[in-house]
Design brief:
Oligomer: single chain
Number of helices: 4
Strand content: 5-15%
Strand order of the largest sheet: 1-2
Structural class: alpha+beta
Radius of gyration: 14 Å
Helix content: 25-40%
Number of strands: 4
Largest sheet: 2 strands, antiparallel
Shape: globular
Length: 109
Amino acid sequence: MTTTQQVTWGAVTMVFDNEEFRQGYALGRIHYFHGTPPNGVTGDLNLPVSSLLRIITLPSEDGHFELDEDDDDSIELTLGVLIGYLSGPLHTETTEEEQSWNGLCPFAV
């Protein structure tokens, strides 16, 4: 995984002072650059909110989204994945990231 300790997001520098969030952030970036796009995503210019929500939730029978009750992931990891995924269009994959991931992708490719 990447060992980045902070990332600049516009005028804000996000400091990774939580290890689970940092791990989730790295997983989200792996998912963005190497995973199968969520259903409904047609490229960098079109990201429906419903598709974005599917990255960290499950659709319910009534059309809403819920966190997976059987999932043991912490909220820190879950939010890290979401923020990491969203950082993809803003920050291209670095050589360090590509080398450190070395083909490891926990998502369907």
